[in-house]
Amino acid sequence: MKIYTRNGDKMKTTTFKGQVYKSDLVIEVEGTLDEATTVLAFARANNTDKDIKDILEKLINKMFVFGSEFLGYTSNKLTSNDTLELENIIDKYSEKMEKNNDFIVPGQNVRSASIHLARTTIRRLERRVVAYYREYEDERNDTLLMFINRISDLLFILGKWEDLHQ
After folding, report:
1. What pLDDT band is residue 6 in, cutting at 50, 70 and 90?
2. How many structural domains compose the chain?
3. Does the pLDDT of residue 42 top 80, yes or no?
4. What is the enclosing helix (H) or strand (E) of 103?
5. Residue 135: inside a domain, yes or no?
6. CATH code for the domain in which residue 75 is found
7. Which domain holds residue 150?
8. CA distance 78 to 41
9. What value, to the nearest 5°, has the Cα angle with vertex 15 and ends 9 and 19?
10. Are 22 and 31 within 8 A, CB to CB?
11. Coil, strand, or helix at residue 156?
12. What is the DSSP-derived secondary structure letter of residue 18?
């Protein structure tokens, strides 16, 4: 089986929008989504806490739903309940931590560094999605925007948790 088609050799590729340049915003989102999912898997592989590994596994699976929905490939959709579930996890971990306004340097260990790397990649994905929706306002999906924003919030809390619990 060949994995190359040579179709992309002329700076274009095919998406649900038809033929687009590889620098098109939809390709930026798709590529950053791939990076974000991979970095979440890296964070999961570097973590030893079963609960956090399970959370990261669920996030990875939800990222596939996010991508399929964003790219118009599936009827499987994220809902406000998916965002609410993330908020419940954020609240659970936040309540376990002391209020601390001190600046925390992220990445005190490989577990937290991996989670913070995932967080920053998700933030970049969010910026790419916002840029896409600004250009194609008629395709805007607020559920996806809320969900991706909440993932980065959750990863911030999990990274902080790992920083404080070395």
Report:
1. confident
2. 1
3. yes
4. none
5. yes
6. 1.20.1200.10
7. 22-92+107-164
8. 20
9. 55
10. no
11. helix
12. E
Coil, helix or strand at residue 4? coil
Say if CB 90 and CB 150 are below 8 A apart.
yes
Q: Is 162 exposed, middle or buried (0-12, 13-18, 19+ CB in 10 A)?
A: buried
Q: How many CB atoms lie within 10 A of CB 94?
A: 13
Q: What is the arithmetic mean of pLDDT over 60-83?
A: 91
56 vs 16, residue with greater confidence: 56
Whole-model pTM above 0.70? yes
**3-state percent helix, strand, coil for the chain, nearest multiple of 5:** 70, 5, 25
111 domain residue, yes or no: yes
Residue 101, pLDDT score? 62
- List residues bridging with 141 in a β-sheet: none
Q: Which residue has the tokens 């798709």?
A: 30
Please name the residues in contact with 55: beta carbons below 8 A apart, sequence gap of 6 or more. 89, 154, 158
Three-class SS of residue 139?
helix
Tokens of 101: 């306004």
Provide the b/e sequence for 116-152 (b: ≥16 CB within 10 Å).
Answer: bbbbbbbbebbebbeebbeeeeeeeeeebebbbbbbb
Those residues whose C-beta lies under 8 Å from the C-beta of residue 120, and which sit 6 or more positions away, are none
Residue 29, both tokens:
């989102």
Tokens of 138: 């008629």
